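re: ur question from earlier - yeah i can do the single chain one, its not a big deal. heres the input i used so u can compare w yours
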Amino acid sequence: MGSVTASVASPTGSNVIPWFRTFAAIAGSGFRRYATYWQASLAGAVTNTVFGFLRCYILLAVTGAAGTAAGYDREQLATFVWAGQGLLAVVQFWGWTDLADRIRTGEVAGDLLRPVHPVTSYLATDLGRAGWACVPRLLPPMVVGPIFFDVQLPTRWSTVPLFVASVLLAVVLSFGCRFLVNATAYWLEDVRGPLILWTLASGALAGLYFPLPFLPDGLYLTLQLATPFPSLLQTPLDVLVERDATAHAVGLVAVQAGWAATVLALCRLVQRRAERRLVVQGG
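and the output i got, formated as tokens:
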């Protein structure tokens, strides 16, 4: 017995506004969904703040008597740590298995019958989640850090809009990577292996544990251009602390945009192949 999947045309012409309204409605529902878990958000903010103190003292100790390390001064490193602790929940590296769970239970068939493409639907929900995380998870570390440490404040008018754009691209890119990891369930059913690999790689190669410029220049450049990982966290933080000139920061955000577009296109390709696999197997 075969299965039926919905085919949704790309939003063009007169249906752009309805498509945008649908996307915004799904994003809004995602915001409300995660806003119900305010106690978990509060607990996460406390945890991130505690680890912020630990990480900040460790990285400040690395600067030693020179007061700098890998091109970062003490104020930049403090900003790197506290902003990174806040962005951890906004960008979100781990903990999302919605698609994999629905594939395992077969509920994903309902997603394929909806008039919105699964990638678009899940992306809108994730953007709503990130919007909520900006309130209880990003703000507390950003407020607590400057109270106890000297931090780097933006000195260029372009820093704030570039940082906002970089964070948005990081959220989209992170979603795409997590979607691909979850989509392996179409073929593997059990995604614990891919999830573990993603957890290890994303934390170490995105700049979460330490700034990637601490690595040798050749290795850092390879990671920056050949992998999407630095665009998840390292790039937004470098833009915020103004480690490089404005032109270089714009180039980093452009690299982010390229990775985000590539990964989203790959998500749609994988989803299309997965739908064909479901049809062949009988739904």
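The chain has one domain: 15-281. not sure if urs matches, ping me
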